[in-house]
Predict the structure.
Amino acid sequence: MATSNIKAIHPYDDPRVTHKFQVVNGKNYHYVHGMPAGSVKGTILCIHGFPDLWYGYRFMIPFLLEKGFRVIVPDMIGFGQTDAPRVPPADISVYSVKNHAADMVELLKILNVPKVILFGHDWGGVVTARIYLYNSEIVSHIANICTPFLPPVREYIPIRELVATKMPNFKYQIAFQDPQTEKDLEAPGKVRQFLNGLHRGHGEEMGGWMVDRDIVESVGNPKRSKFMSEEDLDYFTKEFERNGFHGPLNWYKNGKVNYEDEKDLPFEGVEVPYLFIGAKYELALPPALAEPQKTFIPHLTSRLVDTGHWALMEDPEAVIGHMSEWFDVVVLGAESKI
């Protein structure tokens, strides 16, 4: 990893961004906001996944600001300083991708953003796709890291059957849905251990996270990752200890709800320019999963980085290199639609 030319956003006090709060559809969202020094060329909404925060974009935010874009990076529902509704009394659908997309669209409306570039990683890539599916008129471009564009769900397959028949690489999601996982993470020190065990780069010591139960113990407690400083891990730990893993794990318990929301949703392809950056050593979302998207995204740019799942942190310079080229040629090029 080489980040000598990138000064990451500090988690607490950085003059390049401000920390803001906004009530959106009855939920209080925390988000990080940055404005470029010169003229504003457009707005980019960055959406993180699991187990992540706005802070997962700490290397990307300076790059996007230098490119001349307004940057909005929320903690998603259940994460960090954003609300984490308990289920019950809240319905599990508060954590559905349709609701996540609706919240993001409303946030953009409140912030007076009529047109947006979407940037997602992990679950964030699923949410960017759903924002486009439900509100394509506000989207000018999409960039996703690791997560390909997934069309509407047309068939509901319970997670154990899905793992057994089609997606063995999703085995860990069985454990994420197991109530025991949330309970295990309530024990002292387990939040930090779990975050440390899941934030691993290619070639680093890995725990046995590809399991269907007892995942907290299975990830072990290896040496801290090369891309996570002690301060980084401290910040992640503090933010996840704020509300625990109840909210984040609920994202994985909405398979039936997501299916019901999307089974009749029209889909004829993706008409906006789309950048997909796959990670060569990604285990949960191997680049091969992105092959089908070639058939329904005519304006597709595909790139690959030599990292595992945490490409945004493991090798931000490689990601930025691909994104910078795409911005110059596609987003800001002669055929720009901003």
User: Anything to note?
Assistant: The two ends are 33 Å apart (CA to CA). The CA atoms of residues 89 and 247 lie 13 Å apart.
